[in-house]
Amino acid sequence: MSSTPRDDLAPNPDLTTRARIRDAAVARYAREGFGVGLRAVAEDAGVSAALILHHFGSKDGLRAACDAHVLRLVREGKERALVTGGAQDLLLQLASMDEYAPLVGYALRTMQAGGAPAREFVEHFVADAEVYIAEAVAAGSMRPSRDEKARARYLTVQGLGALLLDMTLHPPDDPTDVLGVLHRYRDRMMLPAMELFTHGLMTDDRVLDAYLRYVDDAPEGQGPADLA
């Protein structure tokens, strides 16, 4: 079974039936949200709705399989860019962003839907971020942090939140145009983001030192960790 997302949204006949149904569901959910019925997914995959139930048990079972698949592919892509690759691999991934549009679209639909699935999805992203950031620190491609867990959570929430806000402020004419959303977001945000992550923002440690003094002086039970 291929683990690389494809830029077309048609079912791949070389995949197993279960994988073909899953990929069709990911693409359809990315375009239209999770209100789509099983019949639409079945039509995209070239199977019957009864066969979807045979493989996944229910629509919730199909959604859980899609969640796991998307999370794995996103994790693998981030690990390649941050640890095993570098600037060249990052540029190659940006050049082939079309391939990742269904995955990002699926993640955005999950965030928009909210509720327990969205929270669980974010927690998976945070847990994965802790792993690949630790690997990047060990490889010397990323600076260490005073609080690695907090940094992983911040980067996850900041990244997803910025993309969702940008999509809200600049809604696409076609709500199914996930690829267009990604391209426009990249054009507006990628340079300042890469510059900030590479060179930082502050020219000295005064603001950080002031915050650390505040943390040290905060009454017991009122520090940032207690309020989290």
TrEMBL record:
Coiled coil: none annotated. It comes from Cellulomonas dongxiuzhuiae. Residues 15-74 form the HTH tetR-type domain. This is TetR family transcriptional regulator. Residues 37-56 bind DNA. Keywords: DNA-binding. InterPro entries: Homeodomain-like_sf, HTH-type_TetR-like_transc_reg, HTH_TetR, Tet_transcr_reg_TetR-rel_C_sf, TetR_C_25.
